[in-house]
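HUMAN: Mind making up another protein with tokenized structure?

ASSISTANT:
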Amino acid sequence: MNDQPARWTEATVYPDMWLNPEDDPRNNEGPSPDGELATLREAITNYRLTLRLKCEGLDAEQLARRSVPPSTMSLLGLVRHLAEVERGWRNWISDEEPLPKLYGARDADFDGAVADQAVVDAAFADLAREQAAMDATLAGFPDLGVRAGRDKLAIREVMVHMIDEYARHSGHADLLRECVDGRVGQ
């Protein structure tokens, strides 16, 4: 008996896609954004949506499953980790006292990702709140060359780092989701 789930996708138009183009909230049929700022914002938005799509339809046990042993990584852990990432980058460009970590010590975002619906609900609420707070902070910097925070980081650099973090973890989410229930697609 094979414990591995069969590979599948909801897409019927392109078999390597997560959803059909008309159902994909990341699909923008219009022209690409004008300018660097709009392009970076769209990339962040689309990677955030990708994470949510990869988690959609799973229960608490599936979200918390560490599918690639010995890694402690899980989809729920990624949600918690990216909430920390949003907060962390906001701390870097703030002149205020840094906000404390959401989940405590190093790797607590992954280690505390347990199969409990209250933990799942809290993680998604944390992520939504931190994303909204980061968006509000970034809205105050329409010039990507402005340097902010104690280390005077360029806003452009922060946005690129956020894209990098989400892109890397979207790849992890692809593999984790496939291991959980076999669903594939970009």
In short: The chain has one domain: 36-181.
